[in-house]
Amino acid sequence: MLQWIWAMLTLDSLQVIQEMVPRKMSLDEKNEGRKKFRSQFKPLVVEEININGIDKAQGYYIRKMMGRNKSAIPLDQLKPTYFRIFSDDKIKSIFPQLEFNRESNRFKMKLDVEKERDLFVSFGGNFSSRSINTGFVGLKYNLFGKTSATLSANSYFGRFYASLHGDVRWDLPGTFPFSLSGSFTQNRWDYYKSLTTFFDDTNHHLCC
Predict the structure, then answer these.
(1) Residue 160 in contact with residue 134, Cβ under 8 Å?
(2) pTM exceeds 0.90, yes or no
């Protein structure tokens, strides 16, 4: 109730407050002023990247993704590669910090990286009193070094349906990263074993 009263008092006083403002600007004028103000600043340049929490080979992978073949990289160019690394399924978390170097007027970047665990195992299925019971098991293994690879496999098994699926993806870092992938799938259906009465013999007896 008290908040509603304050809101009504503010609305009633809005015209009085506007009359007290001596100078008004349009939205276009504000945007132009902001653009002019930002143009005075020099671009933020990162001259060094230090990576903690992972081994040397994994650090090499991240440096290649961030384009460390250059001596200095503007922060605007690092931003899309940073989010690309952050979205990698081998990386659990990544926390950046910037430290200003007064001698070079550039920044040093520190990345605290926590990699995702190597092995994932999942189970599931459909269990009932009928003959359509189906089980599921899935495996995923991450290989993370100078290159990145993901090996995964899953299987469904039951009287009615069974399948086996496996795939591999190999990620190559660089300024223009790309990946190679392949997969294999085998399915089996058995409509007869799931219907226990399909081939049942029925004997008819005639009597006089």
Answers:
(1) yes
(2) no
